[in-house]
Amino acid sequence: MAADLACWNVADLRERARRRLPNGIWEYAERGTEDECGMARNRAAFERVAFRPRVLRGVQSVDTSTEIFGKQSAFPLALAPTGAAGLLWYKGDLALARAAAAAGVPFTISSASTMDLEQIAAAGGRIWFQLYYWEDRSLSHAVVDRARDLGCEALFITLDMPVPPNREYIHRNGFGTPFRLNARNTLDVLMHPRWLAGVMGRYALDGGVPTQANLPDRLRAKVTKGAPPGALFKQDDLDWDAISVLRDRWPGKLILKGVLHPEDAERALALGADGVVVSNHGGRALDSSIATLDALPAVAAAVGGRMTILFDSGVRRGSDVVKALAFGADAVLAGRAPLYGLAAAGEAGVSRALELLRAETARTMAMLGARSVAEIDSRLLA
Ligand SMILES: Cc1cc2nc3c(=O)[nH]c(=O)nc-3n(C[C@H](O)[C@H](O)[C@H](O)COP(=O)(O)O)c2cc1C
């Protein structure tokens, strides 16, 4: 661990990130929607769960490694796709991918990344790609083909944002798109000179403000301009037929992200998907969504053992990773936890977040008498 980064848990990294970022950028990374009940419900579900540990199991060597989609991962976690990481840190997507590769866990590139997939994949490591559909679906299919040519192992299709979420706070903080300078956001940015110089300053020297990088050049809009026709995400017309089209097009693993209903998981399996992510987008989509930990057992009962079950939304501790596995997940995705590290200290901060989560996972397993990931199951739950 970087000794100069005095952060002893994800909450410490979060606090450092909050101080470093302008409020408008911080709120984009942190906040949910409407009354933020969904975020609170995700956390409350974790906090309600307790373990019933086993003793005398000889836990001097605990193995946190596991297979995800048939390949080894250092612990049962991967980095979730998070768009606009490049606003938290200069070339943030690359910092996330490098830290993931160094930690031996997979990284998911977001469709909304501000660096293009080829640049991010150059970090090495295991790379997955997450798809949102642009209004012009051919743009999305072209990006999927690029991800395939790059050797991305898995394609995640995010389904829990059929319409844009209700982010009321952007009307107040003045960080909507297209971005327009006003007194409030100008003051906010000026009060965060380290971010202004270290992130925006470096982009300015490097050719300008970041854009949505996975679009063709002619459609890349500056954040100060609206998206040109066809280049807005549009998912309200998606149906199972669209997923079938992708299944035919994509030779690798296909995963549906944002599945909470067991019947949808069964349908995904029938259609040939390799996995689902039990996710409510970290409470950033439907505020009144069921907590993902509460949704997980029914999905696991429906399709567990027949497809890979990933899980996210609210993971902040290694004990949360173990709880999700005990409830039936094969591995978890972490969204905000690595982003806090990124905003706090770039690649070193992401590495710190991952190392903290891995160490906490190992310690929780030892406390439970689970020597391997295979030994984590529902019998350890109180
Ligand atoms: C700032 C931010 C950006 C995100 N962008 C995307 C995205 O582009 N695509 C996507 O499928 N999910 C996106 N998500 C959701 C994450 O993939 C993940 O589901 C969520 O963050 C999990 O909850 P957690 O943040 O509590 O770990 C984003 C989340 C955050 C915090």
Question: Would you give an account of this structure?
Answer:
By secondary structure, the chain is an alpha/beta fold. Helix content is 42%, strand content 10%. The chain is built from 14 helices and ten strands. The strands form two sheets. An eight-stranded parallel sheet has the order 3-10-9-8-7-6-5-4. A two-stranded antiparallel sheet has the order 1-2. α11 links the parallel β7 and β8. It is globular and about 60 Å long. The relative contact order is 0.21. The model has no long low-confidence stretch (mean pLDDT 95). The protein binds flavin mononucleotide (FMN). Flavin mononucleotide binds next to β10 and α14.
What can be said about this structure in brief?
This protein has 382 residues and is of the alpha/beta class.
What is the structural class?
A: alpha/beta
Q: Give a count of the beta strands, DSSP E runs of length 2 or more.
A: 10
* Strand residue percentage: 5-15%
Q: Indicate the radius of gyration in whole angstroms.
A: 20 Å
- Output the number of helix runs: 14
The gross shape turns out to be globular
Order of helices and strands: HHHEEEHEHEHEHHHHEHEHEHEH
Distance between the termini: 33 Å
